[in-house]
Structure formats: structure tokens, C-alpha cells
Amino acid sequence: MTTVNTDDRTIFARRESEARSYCRSFPTVFTKATGALLSDGAGNDYIDFLAGCSSLNYGHNDPDMKQALIDYISADGVTHGLDMHTKAKAEFLGAFEEIILKPRGMDHKVMFMGPTGANAVEAALKLARKVTKRTNVITFTNGFHGVTLGALSATGNGYHRGGGGVSLPDVTRMPFDNYLKSGGDAADLLEAMLSDPSGGIDAPAAILLETVQGEGGLNAASAEWVRRVEQIARDNGALFIIDDIQAGVGRTGTFFSFEEMGVSPDLVTMAKSLSGYGLPFAAMLIKPEYDIFGPAEHNGTFRGNNHAFVTARVALEKYWSDGAFQKGINERADILEKRLEKVRSMLPGARLKGRGMMRGVDVGSGELASDICARCFENGLIIETSGAYDEVVKVLAPLNIDKALFERGLDILEEAVANCVQSTSIAAE
Ligand code: PLP
């Protein structure tokens, strides 16, 4: 085996593509991860408020998921089976039906595709276009849906769109809830333009949105706005799609981010924390009447990751069979709100953003946000930014993080903000 000196990071600069990103913010070599802690080769522990960008809602290496996976592998369970029937898939689907879909009155079918969020979004856009025989899709300012070309066309971020290298057609972008700083209702504008035959918007195949825009700066839509957008979709013969890739699987306090909003999306895209263990896994939920792709019409060699089926089933049984986990999320969300409110009050003009355990503070500039995150890292906290200018310091801690550890991480954040405030006022003197 090649031995690697974990203190030596030159291999990454020498051989890993310039496209690498998070590693630039957290310059160490990680060797271990448990729960909400990551450790590096030099023996430093870091509290993880990034959690695989919400792919690790149950923390790193959950012991029950790990044991189930070890048992499955030891027993020569099928690792790769294309989309053939496997016991692991049957057990996942059974648990998803009983624990998630039935109690929520959802009769959706589940489709698996290549194991990334972007692939789920590609599938959703293609399906909506096939169902309606229309091409145009309505998406929203600051929405992020992935970086493959179809998903990228639905994404607002100019840096990522610029990386596409081709035109990104067949999407009309409209203002998200509260986008218009002058006030004015973004749903009124959407409705008015769609109902005006000279409004200039081609009849939409779908309206696609995140209820909380994760990468776009933790903009949380109100339930009322989401309901209105759903109604506008219905009135215009468009499918209503919710991208729950980042906001789903408990992040906002309920399994689906939309389940207390009184809406019934036709398609739901899921990925990130669906496997529970950080394994690649994506799915789309489809109302049965729209389940019209032919066999393998949207396929993918790695659709349906059996190891992810195993861990996802354990995650559902362990965390979602009763209300205890959800209660714990809401308790942590209360702690988070209180602590972030304090951080907000330390910075003139700062704003609290997001919902549930998907919250952050808009500190006013990307420069300040990045300074805060760098100071946090020096003191043992991994935390990142989001937003059009990377101006939002964003907390995505595991949903079951030990409360004392959570408070410790929030102490580090608060200290970093206090130090930034102090050094800026010293600099201003
Ligand atoms: N949709 C949303 C809401 C996301 O936050 C992301 C990723 O951050 C994606 C889609 C794309 O997922 P992936 O990076 O797995 O392709």
C-alpha cells in the first residue's frame, strides 16, 4: 500500500484538479469522523457545522447504519445490481412507504437515477416536459439545483452558469418570495405575467422551487407563497416540483421541508441525506399519474445504490418511526435561533436567515463572512457560507448533534464574530 504522510498536503496541489473547493477553506487532512466531529492527522478535532452540506443530517458514521452496512457486506449482499430487484431495495422501499409516505398521505412512486442531486433534477425536468409536451420551466432567483446542464439552466448562480459553456435555454426565472426589496408580491407578478397572453412567458411545463434556498443564501419562502405558486402551477397546467435535496430529510424540522405548508408537489427531488450515511443516493418522488417514463428512458448505471438502500432503511427506522428525533431537531433549532440572534445583534445591519436547522446570518459581505469562517476553523469549527455574495454564514450542523457540543460550536462562532468586530473597529480608529 502506498503510504501517505497526512501532514503533507502537496499531493493535492500537485495532482488534484483546480476545481477542488471546500478543501481550500479547510486546509488540513481529515482522517476520522464520528457524529458531529471530524479529526485530522495532527490530532485536532473539528465540530462539523457543514455536515457534507446537509448530506450528514444524522452525523458521521452512525453506529447502527455502520453495523448494518458491515453485516450486509460481510454476508456478500449485492453491491451493484443496476436497477434489478434486490432485498436491500425492497426493504428500503417498504420502510419508505410505511414510515414516510403513508403517514403523510402521499401515494407517490419512487424513481432512482444516477446518485446525485443534479441527476434527480435532470430527471424531474425531463419528466415534466414529457408529461406536458412543453419546454419552458419556471425557476427562481437564487435557486440552486446542481451543475449538469439541465439542472444548471434552472440554477441562478452566475459563476456556475458561466461554467456551462453553452446557452442554458428553456427556463424563465422569476423573483423568489421576498426577492423584491421594495416589497411587492413575487407571486402576484408570476400570476399576472402568466395570465397575460402578451406577458412573454411560454406556457410552463413546471414550476420548480426550493422552500429554503440552501446555496442561494437561506431564503425561506413563506407557506402562503409556496401555496400560491402551487396554485399558479395548477392554473397553468404546469407540474409543481419541490427540490428537497438540501432542505429535506429533517433539515427544516420535518422530514419534507414542505409537509406543514399544505401543498402536494407532483414531483419531489431528493438526495444528500437520503442515504443517511453520506453515501451517494438520489431519488425522485412522482405522483402516479405522471409516472410515464418508459423503461430506462432516464437511466444511470449507478441508479439505486444498494449500500445506500441499507443505511437509508436503518435511518428511517431509527429516526423517523416515532416523533423523538423530530422533537430533538426542534429543540436544537430553538437553541440555534437564540444563539444566532445574539450573533446578528453584534453586527450592524446583519439579518437572520433560514428555517429550522438550516439557518445562518447575513453578515453583509462575503469578505466578512469568509473572515468569520476562517477564524472559526482556526478554533476548531467547520462552517461555510452561502448566498449570491457568499455573505451568509450558514449553520448546517447534524440534526442530532450533542447539545453541549452544539453550544460549544456556537461559542466558537460567536467568538469569531466578536474578534472580527473588534479588529474592524481597531482598524477603523
Ligand atoms: N438541489 C439543491 C437544492 C442543492 O442544494 C444541490 C446541491 O447543493 C443540488 C440540487 C445538486 O445536488 P448534487 O450536488 O448532489 O448534484
Tell me the fraction of residues in β-strands, as a range.
15-25%
Number of helices: 14
Work out the count of structural domains. 2
- Could you report the average pLDDT, rounded to the nearest whole number? 96
Looking at the structure, the CATH topology of the largest domain is Aspartate Aminotransferase, domain 2
* Strand neighbour order, sheet with most strands: 4-12-11-10-7-5-6
Distance between the termini: 57 Å
- Give the biggest beta sheet: 7 strands, mixed
Percent in helix: 25-40%
Quantity of strands, as a count: 17
Per CATH, the class of the largest domain reads: Alpha Beta
Which superfamily, in CATH terms, is the homologous superfamily of the largest domain?
Type I PLP-dependent aspartate aminotransferase-like (Major domain)
Radius of gyration equals: 22 Å
What's the architecture of the largest domain, going by CATH?
3-Layer(aba) Sandwich
Attached small molecules: pyridoxal-5'-phosphate
